[in-house]
Amino acid sequence: MIRRTLRRSWDIYVAFLLLTLACAILVHLAGGGRLADESNTRILLDQLGATLAHAAILQYRPVNTDVLPIFVLLHLLFAPLLWLLLRLPNVTLGASVALYVLVHVFGWTVPAWPSGHWAFNPLAWQLLVVLGAWWMIEDRNVRPWVTSRTVLGLAALYLLFSLVIALSWRIKPLEGLIPQTFAQLHQVDKCNLDPLRLLHFLAIAVLAARFVPRNWRGLTTPVMRGAICCGRSSLPIYCLGVLLAFAGHMVLFDISDGLAMQIAVSLVGIAAMIATATLLNLISIKPRQQLAIDSTLPSEQRRTMMSHSIG
To answer: Among residues 7, 85, 107, 152, which is most buried (max CB within 10 A)?
Structure first.
């Protein structure tokens, strides 16, 4: 487990550095300007050496790459975390919750450059990783409680409440019906995983655990198969998505930012990611399947299957 998490952490780290360089090159080719300011690459283009040094220690991140540094840190810590969860699951979860609370009380964070701001503070967002691992380990004890009618009802009500609040930001008739206290909820902190955001995620997780079983037929539809392919190649597809987002912004800036163009850019980007993920999965599946054949079948049968395959 230590070897695998260290290797995955290294893969993500290298991908982050290469993606940072790719973003800078793309913005430079686009002429900089507004795109450089909105993508936080202006300082990278102006102070290349210093910025790359800070990127190497995960203190600088262009826009949309913020997830990768936090995953580097969480993968580095996951092996000891899992060791603790397997032995003291509730104590480990309690320590994670305590750290989350202290972050909100004292404003703890990890150093960043140049603004000192993390879009996803690792000290706060670690709670989702710990919570997910704890849920898997304690599934038998948690599932009856999660699927109870009371919890399902509360989750549905919270999501309905969230939907009304979100719609009120765009629909004026609803805006007048929402108290001012609730109307400002769009300002809740994403950086430190605001409790309201955490509750929203948990509400969705509760409904998904109840209504989306592992053998759900909907998972076999073409759309869901495409999403699953993207998930299986999550790192390269995420990096591709960041570059496509930059390209999409360039199209919207230079051609049109109308609704039709936004929909077209989104559909083209989704299709490109699904196509790339499908190709990557085909490339990675074939060697694994061959390895499984080679290791499980008798030698005579292996030779027969190989001759058919070559033919």
So the answer is: 85
Q: Which of 30, 128, 4, 12 is nearest to 66 (CA)?
A: 12
Using pLDDT thresholds of 50, 70 and 90, give the confidence band for residue 183.
low
**Token code pair at residue 76:** 């580095």
pLDDT per residue over 231-243, tens digit each? 999 999 999 999 9
Contacts of 276 (CB under 8 A, 6+ apart): 233, 236, 237, 240
Domain boundaries, the chain: 1-100+107-118, 138-212, 216-289
Measured distance CA(92)–CA(16) in Å, rounded: 29
Distance from C-alpha of 26 to C-alpha of 44, rounded to nearest angstrom:
12
Structure tokens at 40: 């936080």
Closest CA to 158 of 128, 119, 201, 118: 201
